[in-house]
Amino acid sequence: MNVNERKAIKRLLIRSTNWIGDAVMTTPAVRAIRRHFPGARISLLAKPWVAPVFAHSPHVDEIIVYEANGRHRGAMGPIRLARDLRRHRFDAAIFLQNAIEAALIAFLAGIPVRIGFDTDARRPLLTHAVRCTRAIKAIHQTGYYLEILKGIGVVDGDQVLELTLGENDREQARQLLTRQGVDPAARIVGLNPSATFGPAKQWFPERYAALGDRLRDEWGATVLIFGGPSDRELGENIRRMMHGPAIDLSGRTSLGQAMALIDRCDAFVTNDSGLMHVAAALNTPLVAIFGSTNSTTTSPHSDTSRIVRVPIECSPCMKPVCPLGHMNCMKQVSVELVFDTLKGLL
């Protein structure tokens, strides 16, 4: 696709990925799309739980919500979504998501130019199929998504993550901390003990609790425990295991508010998760604990991050549940190791 072909595109749709961490890692690609399609009105199609990542992005003109649990649910949902998209009269679509569904919906919506990796048997549905090689799959995912653009002649090497926060979310975060009695000058450390995809990615709750106690005792830190609605029991258990006070936010904030609170943190300790990538994008100093997953492709992409990982023969296995049953990769990561890594970072 040459420069004149790009200039001819006036309405462009970006199909976002479906997970928060992946969406954050696409932000360099979204910025590059804006840079190389400057005359286009750019809409971004995203699931509701991902949309807040782009809600205040200067590179997106409009967010279209894929109402997977509402209007667009069920077997007829994608067809209804295609009809909704057809009304926008898009000239082109770029798929950052790899599933065949993304290309099929765009095809049914009559979008004439369809760009994406040739994954998931969707090559016949693409007008510009970019080959996804083994080498591309092996690089960090920020570069992986940029390779889609490289496949249509758009070369952009800027892999800096980017998140723009809303002022309303910032204000609600300030109010939440005030209600909890947190001194505006307090040192705040966030703990994120959750992770999707399975328990193999999660460091042990009792170690998070012990780390929280040490951060409070030695640094005088206010400890915030993060998590989604499904993590309420986990967050409450960690708070109860701690000897001193902590503020459990699990399931009590929106994603936008959680992002604003992470931005307020002086440090963040996390499993490999969506909020890990949020912290990286906000340049919050963070320590990320890796076990079963691949730190080469999904590590936090920032200069203010450190990875704690003890290499063993079976790691990374990429399994949601430890196939050996004892999670040696996580057992090797001690509270002392995480604390010392955080101390060295700060």
Automatic annotation (TrEMBL):
Pfam families reported for this sequence: Glyco_transf_9
Keyword Glycosyltransferase: yes
E.C. number: 2.4.99.24
Domain of life: Bacteria
A Gene Ontology cellular-component term: cytosol
Chemical reaction(s) catalysed: an L-alpha-D-Hep-(1->5)-[alpha-Kdo-(2->4)]-alpha-Kdo-(2->6)-lipid A + ADP-L-glycero-beta-D-manno-heptose = an L-alpha-D-Hep-(1->3)-L-alpha-D-Hep-(1->5)-[alpha-Kdo-(2->4)]-alpha-Kdo-(2->6)-lipid A + ADP + H(+)
GO biological process, one term: lipopolysaccharide core region biosynthetic process
InterPro entries the record matches: Glyco_trans_9, LPS_LOS_Heptosyltrfase, RfaF
Gene Ontology MF term list: ADP-heptose-lipopolysaccharide heptosyltransferase activity
Keywords of the record: Glycosyltransferase, Transferase
NCBIfam families associated with the record: heptsyl_trn_II (TIGR02195)
Family affiliation: Belongs to the glycosyltransferase 9 family.
Protein name per its UniProtKB record: lipopolysaccharide heptosyltransferase II
